[in-house]
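Moderator note: this is an archived Q&A kept for reference. The question asked for a predicted structure of one protein chain; the sequence and the answer are reproduced below.
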Amino acid sequence: MPIPLLIASVVGGDELANLLGQTGPVAKIVLLLLLCFSLFSWAIILSKWSLFRRARVQSSRFQRAFRRATRLQDMSAVSDQFKPSPLATVFEGGFEELKRQGGVRNPVAVQRAMQIASSEELTRLERRLPWLATTGSVTPFVGLFGTVWGIIDAFQGLGTAGAATLRAVAPGISEALITTAAGLFAAIPAVIAYNVFVNDIRTFGARMDDFSLEMLNSIERVAPAAPARQSVAAQEAELRS
């Protein structure tokens, strides 16, 4: 039994399976193509939903831990526990730049490092989303192709029968309606999920920007303390001499 017929018999019962069984080979190819689009888009939807949910939870946990921490070194030691939070990746990018500088010497370079990390995280979150956009825009036209082919088949049935009877046009019309419905079934969830995920990515981008500013504030609060400690040490050395 072909895959579309098997799924139809499970989901819609024998009537839908019999209706699909009456379709022509072109309609079966169209339905199989739409099924592949739908299955792949649903796999992306479920994986992205799980990824974004974990990233949202871990980002909230990381932000609370960062605000409670007294030193950046403490957060660096535990940042791996908060993956896949994009905030943890942004923090690691800024902290690595701080370590390369050997202290707070150039906050602008730290900001650039966090911007690069934020851009990489947005790229990771956007991965495979174009497939959802493609599914939402292409599958209705694929279904429309099946619709047009079904109407052509219906008119051919009229010409063969020689009379405008329902028996002559029913197979072609049913074939047209099935492919149209299948195209919409594949497109609607993909479009909804794409819009939801794009909004989530915008939210993550705003949170990463806000966290970058918050971390820069923490760095700049630490930066003036280092020269002050150095001046005190120099004064103590002068007094000893």
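Archived answer notes: The CA atoms of residues 64 and 70 lie 12 Å apart.
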